[in-house]
Amino acid sequence: MVKRFTQVLVLLWLGIASVAYADLPNFADLVEKNSSAVVKISTVDKGQSSLSDRLPPQFQDIPDIFRHLLEPRRRQDRPVASMGSGFVVSKDGYVVTNNHVIDGADEITVRLSDRREYNAKVIGVDVLSDLALLKIEADDLTVIEWGDSDELRAGEWVLAIGSPFGLDYSASAGIISAMGRSIPSRRSENYVPFIQSDVAINPGNSGGPLFNLEGEVIGINSQIFTRSGGSNGLSFAIPSSLAINVIEQLKGKGRVDRGWLGVGIQDVTRDLAEAMGLRKPHGALVAQVEPGSPAAEAGLLDGDIVIRFDGKKIDESGDLPHVVGQIMPGTEVEMTIVRKGKKDKLDVVVGTLGAADGEVAENRPEPSAVGGRLGVMVTPIPDSIKQRWNIKDGVMVKQVVPGKPAAKAGLRSGDVIAQVGFDAVNDVESFEKVVDGLPANELLPIRFFRGGRPAFRTIQIEE
């Protein structure tokens, strides 16, 4: 009797297990169909003679204006190699990856699944979304189809293909953990509503695709949360709805124009919600309106709470930059606010992120010419930065083109250039005039502000 009962339990367990197994997705067809469109990206930074931020003690007291004189005596840095992933988005050779995969690289190599290798050209990069568009001289390539990330829900199965730790075309699966995650950058910028998943993502997976069960790319793997350097079950991908727009702009004009409102915001706590007449905490509380900004011209005031923008609900403060950033500059939209406990609606003409006056930046005709001789795009300094950093003149760096002189000098988006060579930079016009007159193949000093602190580096135009 006991033996019979045991046999029944075993059969029952096997039946339950087989049913559970049958409900799990089989990713074999998806991997086989799409692996050939996933690429491995290798980069080399050849190094340069650059002045370290940590000079020997005997040089620490030397004034900034003379520090560049030490630089030619420093030894050449060794080449640094790195790797990542990417995928083909057009048959004629356009490839998408993360900006941080190719940032600062002098050489970029794209390797296909059939082991063909191509030198890649950078068409454009976007630091704020961490995306880069490359081009290789190949045709009739396998292309991955885009999916709609806006239709994703927590709990759906997803799969990643990439080269973790250099292991080519590795696949890992998991589920969507959450949508719309806000992860501010070091400069407190927050323009990507990340997809969070528990897919095993490791170094080398960056820039690779995240698929839904239909084999469509709904995300681009970008970041992980880890204490060990490996996967900790928290990975973040750039949603396809944002990536498609960024890639189209990079392909068309070599840069990305983002919407700008000109406000400082914070979350609405339970106490603040009660004090400001809300039944529950939601929306983005306006802590500061920048003078002359689109928000100021629209009549937005300190203390207003934005609860809807361009028809989209704003639940948390991080939702507002996600929505505003994806609106084309110059577009007039409606926003719903709560002021002194009462709802109101305002119309606002969205400005351009990085432009002090909110005007749409001028288009450049050739992507290859983006950044000029230094490989850097600049804009006027916003008044808020001038006041915060106590500076009057200069230009703000909007984008740095990988592999160009500015990137090799260590410049980043958000830096303020005050001097190039031995000439002061007052505004965009004077910057362009100074750069046009710089000699080639000579080490020159460049002075800039980062986080309000002045610094000197050297820069060299190789022509």
Automatic annotation (TrEMBL):
EC top class, as a word: hydrolase
Example GO biological process: proteolysis
Signal peptide positions (record): 1-22
Enzyme Commission (EC) number: 3.4.21.107
Domain PDZ as annotated: residue spans: 243-314, 359-420
Function, as annotated: Might be efficient in the degradation of transiently denatured and unfolded proteins which accumulate in the periplasm following stress conditions.
Name of this protein: Probable periplasmic serine endoprotease DegP-like
